[in-house]
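Hello again,

I reread your note about wanting to compare the complex against the isolated chains. To keep things tidy I'm splitting this into two emails, and this first one only covers the full assembly. Below are the input lines as submitted, including protein chains and any nucleic acid or small-molecule components. They are followed by the predicted structure of everything together. The single-chain runs will come separately.
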Amino acid sequence: QPALTQPRSVSGSPGQSVTISCTGSSSDVGNYKYVSWYQHHPGKAPKLIIFDVTKRPSGVPDRFSGSQSGNTASLTISGLQAEDEADYYCCSYAGSYNWVFGGGTSLTVL
Amino acid sequence: QVQLQESGPGLVKSSQTLSLTCSVSGGSIGSGSWNWIRQSAGKGLEWIGVIYASGSTSFNPSLKSRATISLYTSKNQFSLSLTSVTAADTAIYYCAKAGGRWGWHAFDFWGQGTMVSVSS
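Full-complex prediction:
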C-alpha cells in the first residue's frame, strides 16, 4: 500500500489540461514543502519534473505545474501533447531522512 | 551530466541476499545523497534508503533492518544489500541521486533500473 494516494489513471485530449492529485497525511505532504513529481516512460529512467511543490528544473516546459493544499499535492499538465503519455509519480519527504512515493498515475493522451 | 548505472544478478534465491551496485559517472560521489528506489510489478515506486557522502545512512522502516547501503568513493560506486529476500522483493531496482542543484528532496538523476527476480 503506497504511502501517498494517486488516481490510477487519467486521460485527456491533445491541448487539454489534466490534474493528478497526490494525497498524503500531516506526517508527509501536509508537514513539508518537499513534494516532487516524476515522469516515467516504462523502460526509461524516471525524470524529475517538479520539486519543492511548485518549482521546475531547467528544461522542463512550463506546461507542467505543481501546487499543494493541506495534505494533497497536485500536478497539472496543460496543453497536453502526445509525448506526455507516461506514468507520473509524486514523492514527499516524510521526516527523519525518509521519503515516500505515490502509487503512480498512468496518463493517456486520447 | 551525472549518469548512474545499476548492475548485479537478475535472479536471487529466496532467503538469500540481494546485492546491487550503482556506478556513477560524470560527477563525484563525494557530494550529494545516493539512493535506492524500487518498483514492484503493477505497483508504485518505493524508496529503500539513502547514503550521504559523509557515509551516514537512512532506510525505509518497512524493510525492518534488512537493507545496507555502502559507499565506495575510490570507485565512484555505491551498493545495496538486502538480506532474507522473498518474492515480495522482486522488482526493478533504481539508483538515484539527490542533493544536487535542485536540493536534498529532488531525485534529479536516475539509473535505467535493473530487474531482480526472487526465485523459490
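For quick reference: The first strand of chain B starts at residue 3 and ends at 7.

B.
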